[in-house]
């Protein structure tokens, strides 16, 4: 896996006229994972978008080496295509072979239009796209939402394998995420 790190220094985030958090720093290297924890609306998704480079912090900076992939509630799969076609579209861009289809239990769903997928099926499809991106840095915003017990264990195993291969994971979740050596950052400690 390519060399990777992500560092955020003294971040502050403002939405509208509210300062959501300030003075937040983090640093992760190969094989490291961090869980962002906090109540609804505290700013977990906002922080993920800042780390992904999709939003600017009010102050502070993010520095990273290595490509990243963001998993959130928008899977970026064409709603009108069968799942197999929608995933193939990204495979042509990402390169390489299909990854994780069997493991994620998607083979029986490849002919089903994306718009008909259930919440959990949609999340598993988004995970297939994430794996296919082959990036060292994974930003996972609520990756366990809508998943059954079996799929939760599968996601935890996929992340553990990603870390063992030298990847990085940032996981925004208020649910428990079973992973050895997962450090935790409570956003509440950075609310002004
Ligand atoms: N464009 C915007 N303008 C103003 N406020 C916003 C905007 N987008 C989000 N917010 C507010 O910012 C706060 C943080 O939202 P965010 O989605 O980051 O929280 P979260 O911790 O991820 O929440 P959840 O656990 O419910 O997903 C919320 O109070 C939300 O209403």
UniProtKB/TrEMBL annotation:
<protein>
    <submittedName>
        <fullName>Heme ABC exporter ATP-binding protein CcmA</fullName>
        <ecNumber>3.6.3.41</ecNumber>
    </submittedName>
</protein>
<dbReference type="Pfam" id="PF00005">
    <property type="entry name" value="ABC_tran"/>
</dbReference>
<keyword id="KW-0813">Transport</keyword>
<keyword id="KW-1278">Translocase</keyword>
<keyword id="KW-0472">Membrane</keyword>
<keyword id="KW-0547">Nucleotide-binding</keyword>
<keyword id="KW-0201">Cytochrome c-type biogenesis</keyword>
<keyword id="KW-0378">Hydrolase</keyword>
<dbReference type="GO" id="GO:0016887">
    <property type="term" value="F:ATP hydrolysis activity"/>
</dbReference>
<keyword id="KW-0067">ATP-binding</keyword>
<dbReference type="GO" id="GO:0017004">
    <property type="term" value="P:cytochrome complex assembly"/>
</dbReference>
<dbReference type="InterPro" id="IPR003439">
    <property type="entry name" value="ABC_transporter-like_ATP-bd"/>
</dbReference>
<dbReference type="InterPro" id="IPR003593">
    <property type="entry name" value="AAA+_ATPase"/>
</dbReference>
<dbReference type="InterPro" id="IPR005895">
    <property type="entry name" value="ABC_transptr_haem_export_CcmA"/>
</dbReference>
<dbReference type="GO" id="GO:0022857">
    <property type="term" value="F:transmembrane transporter activity"/>
</dbReference>
<feature type="domain" description="ABC transporter">
    <location>
        <begin position="6"/>
        <end position="189"/>
    </location>
</feature>
<dbReference type="InterPro" id="IPR027417">
    <property type="entry name" value="P-loop_NTPase"/>
</dbReference>
<dbReference type="GO" id="GO:0005524">
    <property type="term" value="F:ATP binding"/>
</dbReference>
């Amino acid at each position: 896996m390519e060399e990777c790190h992500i560092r955020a220094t003294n971040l502050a985030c403002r939405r509208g006229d509210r300062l959501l958090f300030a003075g937040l720093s983090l640093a992760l290297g190969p094989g490291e994972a961090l869980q962002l924890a906090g109540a609804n609306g505290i700013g977990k998704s906002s922080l993920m978008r800042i780390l992904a480079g999709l939003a600017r912090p009010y102050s502070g900076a993010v520095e990273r080496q290595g490509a990243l992939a963001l998993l959130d509630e928008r899977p970026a799969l064409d709603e009108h295509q069968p799942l197999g076609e929608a995933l193939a579209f990204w495979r042509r861009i990402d390169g390489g072979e299909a990854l994780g289809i069997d493991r994620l239990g998607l083979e029986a769903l490849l002919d089903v239009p994306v718009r008909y997928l259930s919440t959990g099926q949609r999340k598993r499809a988004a995970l297939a796209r994430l794996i296919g991106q082959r990036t060292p840095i994974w930003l996972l915003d609520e990756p366990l939402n809508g998943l059954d017990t079996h799929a939760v264990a599968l996601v935890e195993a996929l992340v553990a394998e990603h870390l063992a291969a030298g990847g990085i994971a940032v996981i925004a979740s208020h649910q428990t995420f079973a992973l050895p050596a997962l450090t935790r950052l409570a956003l509440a400690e950075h609310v002004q």
